[in-house]
Amino acid sequence: MPLYSSHAYDRSRPLGSYWETTVEPEARNYAPLEGEQTADFAIIGGGFTGLNAALRLAGTHGADVALLEAGDIGWGASGRNGGFCCVGGSKRSPGDIVRHYGHEEAARFLDFQAQAIDHVRGLLEAHAIDADTHSDGELNLAHRDKAMRELQEEAAELRSAFGIEMTLHSRDELAAMGVAGPEFCGGATLKRGFALNPLKYATGLARAAREAGAKLHGRSAVTAISREGERWRLETARGHLLARRLIMATNGYLEEELPGVPFAALAGRLLPVLSCVLVTRQLTAEELAAQGWTSHQMSYDTRQLLHYFRLMPDGRFLFGMRGSTDTTPQSDVAIRREILADFHRMFPAWKDVEVTHVWSGFVCMSAELTPYVGSLADAPDAFAALAYHGNGVAMGSLCGAAVADIVAGKTTSADLPAVVRGPLKRFPFPALRKAYLKAAYRWYALCDEVL
Ligand SMILES: Cc1cc2nc3c(=O)[nH]c(=O)nc-3n(C[C@H](O)[C@H](O)[C@H](O)COP(=O)(O)OP(=O)(O)OC[C@H]3O[C@@H](n4cnc5c(N)ncnc54)[C@H](O)[C@@H]3O)c2cc1C
User: Fold this and answer.
1) Taking the complete model, does pTM exceed 0.85, yes or no?
2) How many helices (H) does the chain have, and how many strands (E)?
């Protein structure tokens, strides 16, 4: 029984994201796979992970690679996210990672996160991708005094354990930085990361991968996978692809009930979770002054059920938060009401400003709350890179390149930080995954507002 209704996987219905209005439809339009095709390497999924894998395989390793995407390029989370290219990838705190993996591996994972940001910056430069970048690092805003004390502790811990500096700001300093809202009682800047238009980044990657020789196919949902001799056979509506090695880059959009060992190897091991975003019309200078928000620094609050927001270079404001726990047309309407309510509470001066776009999409979690890069159990020559816990712009990009290096035989999993090496465990009683999520949301809301 699927966790979510088919509404969430319907590639024919309009998504309604702001990003779609900023990119020419042709930039996403790659012809479907037709008839029998072959490649050394097959990739399922045309988001940051799959596109990075395709670009690395074709561009760096000169390999014969074909990528199959069920929608248009960037249809999944990659074309509809908040565009924070930042540290992250795991839902575990740095302290928890130290306890679980040891100090050295925790430092290695932090370094990997920094490399991920540099990796994206390098791709934008190398392939002349204009993705409307802005923001010098990111700003974490305390939503109450207790959260500010915790931010101070976290800053001290990061400095003493890893030599990483965060700059703390008082409420008055925030106001002087053009960052004001009734809830924000302080904050901390980490000078790592920047913001981008994710669909421009995804379509730029696709162009670069195609120019490097990768064969990209849109509207080519893989409906079944089987073995044909030494090769994988991937069925689509209009043809099939035979390939020696396979990368699953499906992240939160995996349909785990589909037939085939690679689907079964991932079944019950991932939890797709909705995140929701709104974008306003362009704000005037007077409206920005009325709220006291003029900064272009990408920001998020200290809640576990966090809100993320940024004033974009074109003057529109983007605001995101957790989504619904359902994917029906009715839940879409309900979450729209909730996100507007939170936006207006946090930015009251803009309660009459028109919100032009609201949409949702799946981020992907694992039972261990860490990303996974590596091979799949019982599936020879099949690999996956996924589960970035809502932080896949940078992390998904680097993991896509990393899994490509592994399938090409240039590196092994041992070259990666232990945090991303798995194992990718099954959730206990996977049919209850949504019940766990609903319980976690109730607990987090209590921690955020009461405890
Ligand atoms: C609303 C929202 C806001 C977010 N904000 C941020 C943010 O600000 N910063 C950040 O770092 N991260 C953010 N994320 C997370 C980030 O977008 C993801 O981690 C990242 O895009 C994952 O990339 P991916 O390529 O692994 O997966 P996806 O981009 O989800 O791509 C998977 C693709 O696989 C395809 N697919 C699945 N099954 C099949 C099949 N059978 N055949 C063919 N194709 C198939 C899907 O159609 C999909 O396009 C956000 C996510 C969402 C939804």
Assistant:
1) yes
2) 11, 18
- Domain for residue 199, yes or no? no
Rounded Cα gap, residues 51 and 364, in angstroms: 18
Closest CA to 117 of 392, 427, 381, 411: 392
The one-letter code for the residue type at 82 is G
In a domain, 153, yes or no: yes
How far is ligand 1, taken at its centre, from the CA of residue 287, in Å? 33
Mean pLDDT (whole number) for 189-193: 97
Tokens 């379509």, located at residue: 203
**Residue closest to 233 by CA, chosen among 245, 241, 222:** 241
DSSP state of 320: E
Residue 5 lies in a domain: no
For residue 210, how far is its CA from the centre of ligand 1 (angstroms)? 20
User: Which residues in 59-73 are b (16+ Cβ under 10 Å) and which e?
Assistant: bebebbbbbbbbbbb
Rounded distance between C-alpha atoms, residue 406 and residue 421, angstroms: 12
pLDDT-derived band at 13 (thresholds 50, 70, 90) equals: confident
Total domains in the fold of the chain: 1
Which structural domain range is residue 185 located in? 141-191
Is 160 inside a domain boundary? yes
Give the pLDDT score at 2: 84
- The CB of 382 under 6 Å from ligand 1? The reply is no
Shortest-distance atom of ligand 1 to CA 236:
42
Alpha helices, DSSP H, located in 267-328: 285-291
Residue 332 identity = D
